[in-house]
Hints:
By secondary structure, this protein is α+β, with helices and mostly antiparallel strands. It has one domain (2-133). The protein is built from three helices and five strands; from the N terminus they run βαββββαα. The protein has a five-stranded antiparallel sheet with strand order 4-3-2-1-5. It is globular.
Amino acid sequence: MTKLIFYKAKNGGLFDKLVSFFDKGIYSHVEIVLYEVGSYWATIGSSNRDGGVRLGYIPKSDHWDIVQIGQDLEGGTTYIGHGYDWIGLLTTVWSWWPNCKNRWVCSAFVAKLAGLPSPKEWGVQDIFEWAITNGA
C-alpha cells in the first residue's frame, strides 16, 4: 500500500494557484510517500521547483492531505533525473496539447507508475479522485 500526499494550493504561490485553477481542484501537487522519518516524509515525485523527477524530504504539515491507496507504486526510481514537462503541463487539461516523452508533471508521473491509461492526461485533481476511489 502506498500513501499519496496532495499539496493544498491555497498555501502556495501563484503557480500553485494557477495549477489548481486549471485543474479545477484545490490541489497543485502530488507526491508518493516512500517512508516516514520523524517529522518528514521521504518522497518521490516530479517537481517543477526541483526540475523533474527526484527523491526528497518534505516536512509534514497541514498544507498536505494524505490518501492511502491499495496499490504499491513501484519503479519510480528508474525515472530519477527525467525533467519536468513544462511543455506538457497543459496536457492534463487538453489531451491534444503537446508533451515531452521523457519529462513528467507530478500527476502524470503518479499515473504512469499506477499503470493508468494515457498518464500524461491525468491532472492532480484526477489523481486525487482516483486515489479516493482506490483507497485502502
